[in-house]
């Protein structure tokens, strides 16, 4: 396990064939703010977050997850982590150095065990952000990302060993065994979770709202826009967070959430939750049932970007 700790989830970068349609959805419907762009590339911020952007959209022939980006405290920590990853046989995409993206900073990229591109960075200039007001239904920040993997035990072990993630909770089926691992790098219940699926892919990206009222107003705006609502509204037991899931124009699942549980590091003991119990997946009992259709959409399309670094 790495003694150099990541600090937080910075952004999730997506490639899509129809950039303009995706951009319109993420800004006009989902409530993100376009802060910078180039030909076929857009950087989208959450109004309440100091991150320069929480989503990057890139036009490409094929849909894929371009990368996940995490913060680290200092350039020295980035150097140490890069050296340790290389020494452990992890394939680096680039050596640590200055980043050309908005806000600059210092970082590097590498492939995880499933072939996803991961970026780690420090010293990124903070964006001028603002307090989200009552009844304002726009995301405060990027909450977490959930990823599908055929062997979640292997993927979990890799992230714990090399990047210092800690297990918070497990979702288990009496018939099928472990279905999901929730992992943290700070006090938030999870920044990443791994869900067992038939292939490597994006499960969902989650965005934090100010509170329950704002979360419901944002969910209502998405419903009224005609966006496909996949699951919710409800409240999970693992993480104790509210949820509503929607599909973006390219079939990626997005979540509005709020009131994520905060973990006391010295006293937390991981739970094992029985996924067959209705109150585990939805404490409120207000969401539509989790069924094969919802599960199929959550599996998403196989990621075509495994072990292929994005061009930028």
Question: Could you walk me through the main structural features you see in this protein, from its secondary elements to its overall organization?
Answer:
This protein has six helices and 17 strands. The strands form two sheets. The chain has a nine-stranded mixed β-sheet with strand order 14-15-16-13-9-12-11-10-17. With 312 residues, the protein is α/β, with parallel strands linked by helices. The chain folds into two domains: 6-122, Roll (2,3-Dihydroxybiphenyl 1,2-Dioxygenase, domain 1), CATH 3.10.180; 141-299, 2,3-Dihydroxybiphenyl 1,2-Dioxygenase, domain 1. The protein has helices spanning 19-29, 75-87, 152-163, 212-225, 278-281, 292-299, and strands at residues 6-16, 33-38, 41-45, 55-59, 64-72, 92-98, 106-111, 117-122, 141-149, 166-173, 177-184, 192-196, 201-208, 229-235, 242-247, 253-258, 271-274. The protein is globular, with a radius of gyration of 18 Å.
Write a brief structural summary.
By secondary structure, the protein is of the alpha/beta class.
How big a fraction of the residues is strand? 35-45%
* End-to-end Cα distance: 29 Å
Total of domains: 2
| Total E-strand runs | 17
Judging by the overall fold, what is the CATH architecture of the largest domain?
Answer: Roll
State the strand order across the main sheet.
Answer: 14-15-16-13-9-12-11-10-17
Task: Label the structural class.
Answer: alpha/beta
Give the biggest beta sheet: 9 strands, mixed
Rg (C-alpha, Å): 18 Å
Low-confidence stretches: none
Mean pLDDT: 97
What do we call the CATH topology of the largest domain? 2,3-Dihydroxybiphenyl 1,2-Dioxygenase, domain 1
Q: How many H/I helical runs?
A: 6
Assigned CATH class of the largest domain: Alpha Beta
The helix/strand series, from N terminus to C terminus, equals EHEEEEHEEEEHEEEEHEEEEHH
The helicity comes to 10-25%
- CATH H level of the largest domain: which superfamily? 2,3-Dihydroxybiphenyl 1,2-Dioxygenase, domain 1
3D shape: globular
């Amino acid at each position: 396990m790495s003694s150099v700790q990541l600090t937080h989830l910075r952004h999730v970068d997506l490639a899509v064939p129809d950039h303009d349609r995706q951009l319109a959805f993420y800004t006009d419907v989902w409530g993100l703010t376009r802060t910078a762009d180039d030909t076929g590339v857009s950087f989208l911020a959450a109004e309440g977050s100091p991150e320069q952007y929480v989503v990057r959209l890139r036009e490409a022939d094929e849909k894929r997850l371009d990368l996940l980006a995490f913060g680290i405290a200092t350039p020295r920590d980035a150097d140490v982590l890069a050296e340790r990853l290389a020494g452990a046989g992890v394939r680096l995409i680039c050596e640590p150095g200055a980043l050309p993206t908005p806000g600059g900073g210092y970082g590097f990229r590498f492939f995880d065990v499933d072939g996803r591109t991961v970026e780690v960075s420090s010293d990124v200039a903070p964006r001028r952000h603002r307090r989200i007001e009552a009844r304002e239904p726009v995301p405060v920040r990027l909450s977490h990302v959930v990823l599908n993997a055929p062997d979640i035990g292997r993927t979990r072990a890799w992230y714990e060993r090399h990047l210092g993630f800690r297990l918070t909770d497990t979702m288990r089926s009496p018939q099928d065994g472990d279905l999901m691992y929730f992992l943290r790098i700070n006090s938030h219940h999870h920044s990443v979770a791994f869900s067992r699926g038939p292939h490597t892919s994006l499960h969902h990206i989650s965005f934090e709202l100010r509170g329950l009222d704002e979360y419901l107003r944002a969910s209502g705006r998405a419903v009224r826009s005609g966006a496909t609502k996949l699951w919710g509204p409800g409240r999970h037991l693992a993480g104790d967070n509210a949820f509503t899931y929607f599909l973006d124009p390219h079939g990626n699942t997005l979540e509005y959430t709020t009131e994520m549980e905060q973990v006391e590091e010295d006293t937390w003991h991981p739970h094992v939750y029985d996924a067959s119990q209705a109150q585990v997946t939805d404490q409120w009992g207000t969401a539509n049932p989790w069924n094969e259709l919802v599960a199929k959409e959550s599996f998403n399309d196989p990621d075509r970007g495994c072990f292929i670094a994005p061009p930028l």
